[in-house]
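Input.
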Amino acid sequence: MRRRRALLVAAATTTLTLSSAATASADWLGPDYLSAASHTASRPQLSLAADNSATAVYTDADDGVVAERKAEDASAFTAPEQLSTPGATVGGLVSATASDGRAIAAWTEGGSRLLVAMRDVDGDWTTTPVTAPDAGATSPAVALGAHGHAYVTWAEGSTLYGAYWDSDSWGAPTALSTGSGDPIATTSAIATDTGITWVVWADAHHTHAGFYTGYGLINEAVLGDASGATRIQLAADAGGGVTALWSAPSLGEQTAFAGGFAGFGPTQTLKSGSGSGYHPPALSVASDGTALAVWGEDGPAGDRSYAATRDDAGTWATPVPIVGGVAQGAAVARPGGESAALTTDDAGDLYVTRHTAGGWTGQERIAGHAADVTAVGAADGTLLVGWTTDDRAAWALDDRTLPAVGDVSVPILLTAGVEATFGATATDTWSGVDRLVWDFGDHTGPVVGDAPTHVYAHAGEFTVTVTAYDRAGNERSETRDVTVVAAPAGGGAGDSGGNAGGDGGSDGGAGQDDGPTTTTPATTTTTPAPGTGTPAPAPGAPALAPLGRARLLHAHTLRLRTLLARRAIRTVYTAPADGTVTITATLGGKRLAATKALAVRGGTATKVSVKLSAATRAKLARRRSAKVTLKATYRAADGRTVTTTSTMVAR
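Output.
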């Protein structure tokens, strides 16, 4: 007669009294392989650092324990690195990654000796034996915290042992619990950012829990009076709250056990049914405490995989069947209650079923012939899944993280017919950047590159768009507005001036920053030389040449905080002829600042900075917006003047 089993869960807290546009893709990348085609791999394990760099650890029939790393902004894993003793028989592999990128892996060799490998922040692995060769170590568990502390626990018969990593070496093994004389069957451990390590283990009659800080086990307690607990799972939220999940037989209609352990609440039964056999479960807890549990069950109604979600109030929903089959699954929980369950059916096909605010979605097939499923994910829904297929370790990526566009460099003032250089950079967390595409807004077609050149044929206002694409098809765009002026008649066009970007471009140049602006067209007034009207030229002297057009350009986009950070108002002035110019800035009719008379050449764009005093900046800092008027007064050698004004509202 098959024993009835129940899926149980307990929760604990760690209180201790001692402009842009974006489009996301939903296409999977892969499958790709971790292990060599000629090798037999098993038990892949994925873990994630805070920067979304992933670590894969698995066993290889030829190379023992192997580790690979997929760095941020990389589209593939590194070459395999062997961690175990060459030729040794390995078992019981467990691994974890800390938020800063450090990693730990533990396993047994020869069926009895425990070894632990540590990876530092530079990516270098070091393997150390923790027990004697004949110790009889079984069921290792590892925990790695964010502050450099690491722990490893294991069983030797009925005794639970632990060792603490002290900066550069492992301390001597310490007996944490001698138990009741029954052999320890399974252990699990997790470290929180509070510096506490939680340990849960099971023997033939009880499921135990405790925590320790490197000075020994504290407050050991029994979570359940039942035998046969399998594959205990531990997961923590951002506040240090820990959830434990395991399967164990229930007795009659008994559905829960009183925890009695400081921090752990009463044990809850997620599911129990006559004749059901529960397979090892998977657990994931999001930063806000919401959670997902996934398990397989063979019962009188057939073999099924089930999933249950927990809200941020700690209430578990009724389990739902998600796919036929009972093989090992994986769970990835996201803040807000969204999650993904990875399961296989009886044919070995691997599926993902997502849970959103609207409930469970349909199943999406990822691959066939899958086993040993593992998965990690990001808050935006990105999933990295690993499994074994045909004796090889494989992985696939559902990248939903958008690429980032930065260092956009666009000339603020260009001259028609003159070549100008543009620039931008892009990064992508998961699948890597595929390309940068530029649209210059003049219907000339897209250009691919990170530093393209372009020539505008005509004067006018144009919007430049640069779009970054990653290898998964996600895209993000940034736009900048540019002004193109006509080349002066009868003279050289000069260089296109000033770059518009987050850093404001060249020294003294006008820059461009994301933000709201309102710009009014510049107005120009020409005034005769002092006297009554325009003086007649002397007999025989040539007539005065008419003055050309003056231009005064602001930055196209400007935040008030950017103006204050620069300590100056930047503009570009084009004089009608050789002479001098003085630029004055006013606010509400009151003068803010002014330049000295600057020598300018006719037809040449000149970058000008109107410096703001500390008192002026303090006055502007108290405002929510500033309507600044710039007045450029040009004076020719013959005394004629040209006045140009332009107004801009910056918020």
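Residues 184 and 203 are 4 Å apart (CA to CA).
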